[in-house]
Structure to design on (346 residues):
């Protein structure tokens, strides 16, 4: 099954775009890292506020920047997909990539759970208010997963098959 | 120049960083450099976006708590960056893009310091209770408040961190030599 998928991916025009043009990969990597900084910066700053740093700022004020984090995430996914189309065998058989995907899925679940269970309460908090313990737990999970995603991303080269 | 590069890449620490076959060696240093980037550039970007949005007049001071995270990230980047440079000195020091990256980082840090001083000075002016803020965080005081347009600097800061990140990534694609012996005629 995986072999068929890899075969299909390596015969797509996207693979041709990534592998046959010298600057596609470096450009995608540069964008991937800029998007990562944008995502970690905006989401991470919001998480840190929930944990008590910059407590004088209302969480809703920092929440505004999350939209830029979402934009960063979308750019990361698109550029990440380009890498997979370019060298699928380097990713599908790579344990670091598997860890990264699992962490991304868990981060997505954490975001969904936060918005379903806690966001309304958190966004009503004013400057100086302490976030509820459950919101702090969501923030700790989010920060941990963001760091784990970065770590797994950097380890891709080390665990290359 | 070749002698210096040869000396640097042959010293024990350089060899250890470069050749230790453990996941806690070179790959971990690379990860720490990325983590530092996310902390320093990420928080700086979040602050810049907030300023560009039109941060409430008195509130920016509270951002100083968050910017400590940024400086911690800068420290991680500095230490991990020196380790990466020691591992492959010829690769970095013979690449013009490396000097461009360093210049961009230095200017970006200078701009971040100015923005921090500006928001601290403005906060002190609006909230006398914060007058006890350490001078290192409060910077030049009230005179600075009117000295420059913070929003313009936030835009400059965003551009600089973006450019520094891009040039950092391009180092892997623009180097001419990996080791000093390749420079020998």
């Amino acid at each position: 099954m995986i072999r068929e998928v890899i075969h299909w991916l390596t015969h797509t025009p996207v693979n041709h775009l990534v592998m046959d043009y010298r600057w596609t990969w470096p450009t995608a990597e540069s964008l991937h890292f800029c998007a990562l900084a944008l995502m970690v910066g905006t989401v991470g700053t919001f998480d840190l506020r929930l944990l008590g740093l910059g407590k004088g700022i209302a969480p809703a004020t920092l929440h505004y920047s999350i939209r830029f984090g979402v934009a960063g995430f979308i750019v990361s996914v698109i550029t990440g997909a380009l890498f997979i189309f370019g060298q699928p065998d380097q990713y599908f058989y790579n344990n670091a990539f598997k860890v990264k995907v699992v962490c991304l899925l868990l981060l997505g679940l954490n975001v969904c759970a936060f918005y379903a269970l806690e966001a309304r309460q958190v966004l009503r908090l004013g400057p100086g208010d302490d976030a509820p313990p459950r919101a702090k737990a969501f923030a700790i999970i989010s920060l941990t997963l963001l760091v784990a995603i970065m770590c797994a991303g950097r380890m891709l080269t080390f665990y290359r098959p | 120049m070749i002698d210096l590069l040869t000396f640097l890449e042959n010293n024990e620490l350089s060899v250890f960083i470069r050749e230790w076959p453990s996941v806690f060696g070179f790959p971990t240093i690379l990860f720490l450099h990325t983590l530092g980037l996310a902390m320093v550039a990420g928080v700086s970007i979040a602050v810049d976006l907030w300023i560009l949005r039109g941060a409430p007049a008195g509130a920016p001071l509270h951002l100083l708590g968050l910017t400590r995270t940024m400086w911690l990230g800068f420290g991680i980047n500095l230490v991990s960056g020196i380790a990466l440079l020691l591992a492959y000195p010829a690769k970095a020091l013979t690449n013009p893009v490396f000097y461009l990256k360093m210049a961009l980082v230095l200017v970006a840090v200078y701009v971040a310091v100015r923005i921090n001083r500006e928001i601290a000075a403005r906060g002190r002016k609006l909230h006398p209770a914060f007058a006890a803020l350490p001078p290192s965080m409060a910077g030049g005081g009230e005179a600075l408040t009117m000295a420059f347009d913070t929003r313009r600097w936030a835009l400059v800061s965003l551009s600089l961190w973006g450019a520094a990140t891009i040039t950092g990534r391009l180092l892997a694609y623009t180097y001419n030599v990996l080791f000093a012996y390749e420079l020998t005629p």
Residues 2-155 of chain A form one domain.
